[in-house]
Amino acid sequence: MRKFLRGLLFTILVVWAVWGSYRILSWKDTTGGYLSSTQQLSHTGEGLIDVLFLGSSHCYCSVYPDYLWRDSGIAAFDLAISGQDKWSSYYSLREALKTQTPKVVLVESYSLIFEGYGHEGNKYRNLLSHGLSADSIALAEKIDGENLWNYILRWPIVHTRYRELTQYDFVQYKPSVYGRGSEHDWTIGYGPDLERQISCTDTAELSEDNKEWLDSMLALSRENDFDLIFFVAPMQLYGDNQQIINAASEYVREQGSVFVDFAKLSHELYFDPAKDFTDSNHCNAYGAAKVTGYWRDYLQEHYQLVDHRGSKDYELWDLSYLYHCRLEAEMEYNTSTDSLEAYLYKAMHDEYLTMIISIGSGISGEEYSARLSQCMEQLGIYILDYPQGGKWVWQNGECIFSMDGADTQVYFLDLSRTDTLRIENRSAKYGEAGTEDVKINRTPYGGGTDGIAVLLYDNFRGTVIGSWQQ
Fold first, then answer.
1. Sign of the CA dihedral with 90 first, then 309, 463, and 62 last
2. How many Å apart are CA 183 and CA 251, to the nearest integer?
3. Would you tell me how many other CB atoms lie within 10 Å of the CB of residue 405?
4. 0.85 exceeded by pTM
5. pLDDT at 189
6. How many Cβ atoms from other residues are within 10 Å of residue 162's Cβ?
7. Which long-range contacts (CB under 8 A, 24 or more apart) does 131-137 make?
8. Between these two residues, 224 and 425, which has the higher pLDDT value?
9. In angstroms, rounded to a whole number, what is the distance separating the alpha carbons of residues 133 and 20?
10. What is the DSSP letter of 8?
């Protein structure tokens, strides 16, 4: 009996150690970084999603559920994964249907023109992001049957990740809880030239695999009583790929479903290749506003969807929209052309920011000193009272800490579970001129040099969003 109990205890300890190690080493993103649409889905209550989008990066870059929520209270979600191929879309939809009953499913169909994955990371994002189930096994067998057991056990694939672990392998990345699947990006690159695609009306023969996938998706929609819409986001298509899209569009319409090719709508929606794209294949937030606006109007015209704004059950959508707004705020702070005075005033009154200001003792130049004095006076700080400089911490429009440049105290402030602010005057305390006096954890952010240094920390997102010196 003792042998049995010892053996049982040993087995339990081994299983516990393996499970704990796997939780840390497991694949945690679907888009890059630590953002995961599959984690976001798993944190979403049952039966809350009314409109579900599926697809690759073209989906999460061109459709922002946050815009649908802001404008009409539509509970939409992007179950999109980088490089998502046809069958990953199919099995991802099957996973979603285990907990959700969407009224409309919209499938971004770029995958009609490619097979497999562009690189190994995208394969793992698609084959490892969902929990182990009959569907995830069926997908792995279809995509990479020779290595099926690696995808079932998963450990053979992820065990080397220890070299790249960060804090979010141990602490849950919050946007992967409340995010609604989209990628937020205001970067402007040069977009596609869609004119050739607009004029192309020829069709190519659909492959048997494409037909099988389209038929499987349509069958799934009939079995689960949701409307199915296919679409292709605005992007540059080369060779005969537009002919494949045209053929798929014809085939889908023959089956009584809807297919939208946004290249054909580029004039109607006024896509601007010089503003609305990060590159020739992906929309930015400006382009996404046009694509998402089209779907908002379409959904409102064809469906009676409930406006869920104000409902406690849908607080994840509220948090996701706030996350979007904070990302937009970061972009605005970092591209601002406002005067220093206006910049500081805005940051001071931003309820989600901690602002740290450092002023050195060697401010020179009458014009610069006078301008800085004016900027600081609006904050209630008179720099003539600080001949050796000073440091100030602001939250919610109030100064919660200040010290002059001769003070030898050390100030600590816990900004989040993982980030601690440390401020001290090392030059005054240790005679170390020009040292970095402001740090978050071990990362220095200035504050030991002449002039002014400003650090902006977003309390909601738990990250630095701006750091500069003059």
1. positive
2. 30
3. 18
4. yes
5. 95
6. 11
7. 131/42, 133/95, 135/91, 135/94, 135/95, 136/91, 136/95
8. 224
9. 20
10. H
